[in-house]
Prior knowledge:
229 residues, mainly alpha, Glycerol uptake facilitator protein
Amino acid sequence: MKFNLNILKYGNVFLSEFFGTAILLFISCFGSLPNKEFSGHFNACITSGLAVMSVMQIFGHISGAHVNPVTTICACIMGQVDVLQAVIYFVAQMWGSLAGFGLLLIIFPEAHSTFGMTLPLETMKTWKVFIIEVLITFVLSIANCSTWDPRVGKLKDSMPLRIGFLVIALNLIAAPYTGCSMNPARSFGPALWNNQWHIHWVYWLAPISAGVLAAIIYKFAFNVNSGDE
Length: 229
């Protein structure tokens, strides 16, 4: 019976992360698609933040709506998920990334190029892109770690709103320079569908490094197990 319940639990988590990541990719990349009425940097940034906000509202109570391998790594370090669960999250996020962006290409096949990708400014040096991605992902990861702190239990309802606005702010400052990934799943789907891998490693190594650092600092420096206050 326990085995069956675990299968059901893991299945719910897989579907939640799969559909959540697919929705995130579909909406955020759709927001970067040029059109005559609404286009440009500001529109893409707002869309990305609202996409995160929406996914957290829909799936937050099922899987936590990580929709980001970095968030899952942070959750694992913070003791929110075990290694097996983390693997399930990761697989679901990768497939969700492919599905979300693939659906967008079905609707707009003529837009198949580098749209929706997280690409750096042409004049930006790779090391600068790396540092910026580390810094912005560190901020996002610290914010995500705070959502698991028992001392903020009474503020759970506002988490989607606060994380969503943070994503908007980080996109506004960083997207023109790095594409503002902060999420390997966000970068992976468009890169694979477009077969464009320019410094793609940065969008894995920088966010993951920042997430690990942020989770360790939050766990041991801010004493998340201190209980409610």
